[in-house]
Amino acid sequence: MALAMGKFVKMHGLGNDFVIIDARDAPVDMPRTRARAIADRHMGIGCDQLIVIEPSTRADIKMRIWNCDGGEVEACGNATRCVAALFQQPSISIESGDDILRAENGGDIITLTYPAPRFDADAIPIAYAMDTLAMPVAWGPLQAPAAINVGNPHIVFFVEDLAAIPLASLGPEIENDTLFPERINVNVAEITGPSSIDLLVWERGAGLTRACGTGALASALAAIATRRATSPVAVTLPGGTLHIAWDGRGTATISGPATLVYRGEADWARFG
């Protein structure tokens, strides 16, 4: 799966959509302004995240990720599944941020294995030390969240009525709170059964999203860690359902679909 300079693939994972560029043979310069212009849904190609595939000295491939605001981030579970699906191999290792993720291709379903989650305040990071499984903080009706790093930083609120939470207004306030030096992804979860969660996500640098793979992962792991749910957990987002398994100690897996929308070609220089 080699894409020449200027070619791209449009994919989505449960409605979380991506422009994917293979730059292993022909590097693509991607300043913040260009990434933001490509992601623009009115004057660009349009996507939640822009993905560039590069060579890796640590894994089979490396992927870099830019949110639609042009900021580069460390991880994206839905995008990683899409990249793995493009290669059509039974198994592939992918460097993403500091982590190496293993992807298993089951045809319609891609399963990713993630390193053990990190709950310590420095890893998230949080501005000062506190109990990250029951943080003594609140924003309006959202209280006592859990915080977790699953390759990127997440905060998870458990609520009784997901529909009653105005995440569109609370999301940006929490994302940009000074408590989080690198900003944070905001998840609001409703436990709907012993092993099921309904979830909404305000994604750092992207806003409300139909699906967030690492958000689903973080929310399921936080629910398992706080004994609100048992593994495996089905996490349902507006775009569909992801399945997460974790034994409470080591690596975790997330399984879900990856969909090819179309292939295209563009002159990247026209985007600034």
Structural features, described:
With 272 residues, the chain is an alpha+beta fold. The protein folds into 2 domains: 7-111 and 258-264, Roll (Diaminopimelate Epimerase, Chain A, domain 1), CATH 3.10.310; 138-248, Diaminopimelate Epimerase, Chain A, domain 1, CATH 3.10.310. 15% of the residues lie in helices and 39% in strands. It contains 4 helices and 19 strands. The strands form 2 sheets. The protein has a 17-stranded mixed β-sheet that branches. A two-stranded antiparallel sheet has the order 9-10. The chain is globular and about 50 Å long. The relative contact order is 0.17. The model has no long low-confidence stretch (mean pLDDT 95).
Short description:
With 272 residues, the chain is an alpha+beta fold.
Order of helices and strands: EEHEEEHEEEEEEEHEEEHEEEE
Tally of separate domains? 2
Molecular shape? globular
Q: Could you report the average pLDDT, rounded to the nearest whole number?
A: 95
Strand content: 35-45%
CATH architecture of the largest domain: Roll
Class based on secondary structure composition and strand pairing: alpha+beta
CATH fold group of the largest domain: Diaminopimelate Epimerase, Chain A, domain 1
Question: What is the fold's blueprint, element by element?
Answer:
Elements: E1 7-13, E2 16-22, H1 32-39, E3 49-54, E4 61-67, E5 72-73, H2 77-87, E6 91-96, E7 99-105, E8 110-114, E9 138-139, E10 142-143, E11 146-149, E12 153-158, H3 167-175, E13 185-193, E14 196-203, E15 207-209, H4 213-225, E16 233-237, E17 240-246, E18 252-256, E19 259-265
Parallel strand pairs: 2-3, 4-6, 12-13, 14-16
Antiparallel strand pairs: 1-2, 1-19, 3-4, 4-5, 6-7, 7-8, 8-18, 9-10, 11-12, 13-14, 14-15, 16-17, 17-18
